[in-house]
Design goal:
Layout lengths: L1 E4 L3 H12 L4 E4 L15 E2 L6 H21 L10 E5 L2 H16 L5 E3 L1 H7 L10 E5 L3 E2 L2 H14 L3 E3 L4 E6 L3 E5 L2 E5 L1 E4 L5 H6 L9 E12 L8 E3 L7 E4 L5 E5 L4 E2 L9 H14 L8 E11 L6 E6 L2 E5 L5 H18 L15 H4 L11
Parallel strand pairs: 1-2, 1-12, 2-8, 4-14, 12-20
Antiparallel strand pairs: 3-7, 4-6, 5-6, 9-10, 10-11, 13-16, 13-17, 13-18, 15-16, 19-20
Helix pairs in contact: 1-5, 1-8, 2-8
């Protein structure tokens, strides 16, 4: 029996992958499934990272995303609408060229394009403000809601038991792990901590608070639907406070984000007016026509950030695994990470190109930070 703590996309997908390998799995979530970071993300999926470990992992993940609806027998709304990063200085153009060379080395087809070419991809773009773009048409987006439900539905068919509104309040070990919850105690052979921003709370229950995650409130603003095909890629000029805009893949509304963040308690998801002002300031610079569109929604969630913006994935103690601290990248990485973790637990190895040393949870204790994972918003 394997117990997974955390009912976001990482926990639910890992449960499904474990069940595919014949394991008996139970999943605990203290609120509703997806209530943490998953249902609050901007839906983007990209391989445009700036280091080998994340590029290779995300290339594999995107290959899985392409077939995910078919595998789960449920439409997750994955669309390869691309990511378009925009440079505002010659220094940025040079950095884009370095990043593109590295991405191309591992089979990611990013290329440098002109502002005119960028405007062909995003017709209302303020192209005059930019010098060049880094464009990967194989990046994309998917529905967090449909994806999580698709994994959960598939897991249920394989016998996974899901316990919503079941908080884990303690963990102890004798011959097996005993998970104490608000529904009673459960005995399991293996535990997976997939609680992300709440990861330290769970690790502390076994005396291993060694992954220094800090939760930061991030927010999003969404507009009324606009004509499809206007802002289909995620569009981001990193120099403009890592701000971005992207049309929702389901209804065509425009999601607007920016790097304004607040350190705090991940249970507090109250949005702020300051964020609305900051996000829209940049959104209308990227696409001026957005000043004529109505705002219909605003919400908040948390980036579970580690000191190097890379997640902690691996074994923390014998038969106790973590996949936490995704720093805003958990949704896009979920297909690859969940397969890798499940195979590691059951088989001791995986065919997924996940660099276990790079994501080692003990790297922080040793003071061996990785190069910072490229994060936006």
């Amino acid at each position: 029996m394997i117990g997974i703590i955390g009912g976001g996309i990482i926990g639910i997908a890992t449960a499904y992958e474990l069940a595919k390998l014949g394991e008996e799995v139970i999943v605990f979530e203290k609120r509703y499934f997806g209530s943490g970071s998953t249902f609050r993300c901007a839906s983007g999926i990209r391989a445009q990272f700036t280091d080998e470990a994340n590029i290779r992992l995300m290339k594999y993940s995107i290959d899985k995303w392409k077939k995910l609806s078919e595998e789960l027998e449920y439409e997750v709304m994955f669309q390869q609408t691309g990511y378009l990063f925009l440079a505002t200085s010659e220094e940025e153009v040079k950095a884009f060229k370095r990043n593109i060379k590295l991405q191309n080395k591992f089979g990611v087809p990013t290329k440098l394009i002109t502002p005119e070419e960028a405007k062909e991809i995003v017709p209302p773009l303020n192209a005059d403000a930019f010098l060049a773009g880094a464009w990967n048409p194989e990046d994309g987006k998917a529905s967090p809601f449909h994806t999580l439900y698709g994994y959960k539905r598939a897991g249920e068919k394989l016998g996974v038991r899901f316990y919503p509104y079941t908080e884990v309040i303690g963990i102890k070990k004798n011959d097996k792990w005993i998970i104490k919850t608000t529904r009673g105690e459960f005995r399991v052979d293996v535990i997976v901590n997939a609680t992300n921003a709440w990861g330290r709370r769970i690790n502390s229950m076994i005396g291993k608070d060694i992954v220094p995650i800090k939760p930061f409130k991030h927010q999003l603003v969404k507009t009324e639907p606009i004509e499809r095909g206007q802002i289909e890629p995620l569009v981001c000029p990193p120099a403009w406070s890592d701000s971005y805009v992207i049309q929702d893949g389901e209804d065509g509304g425009v999601i607007c984000g920016t790097a304004l963040e607040y350190k705090g308690n991940p249970d507090d998801v109250t949005p702020t007016y300051d964020f609305v002002k900051e996000a829209l300031k940049w959104a209308v610079k990227i696409v001026p026509a957005l000043k004529h569109v109505h705002i219909i929604r605003q919400w908040a969630g948390y980036y579970a950030k580690t000191p190097d913006n890379n997640p902690a994935i691996g074994e923390l103690e014998e038969d106790f695994y973590v996949a936490i601290g995704f720093s805003g990248h958990g949704f896009m990485m979920a297909p690859a990470v969940s397969q890798a973790l499940a195979e590691k637990i059951v088989k001791g190895k995986t065919k997924v190109p996940l660099d276990w040393e790079w994501f080692d949870p003990y790297r922080f204790e040793r003071g061996e930070l990785r190069s910072s994972a490229f994060q936006i918003g």
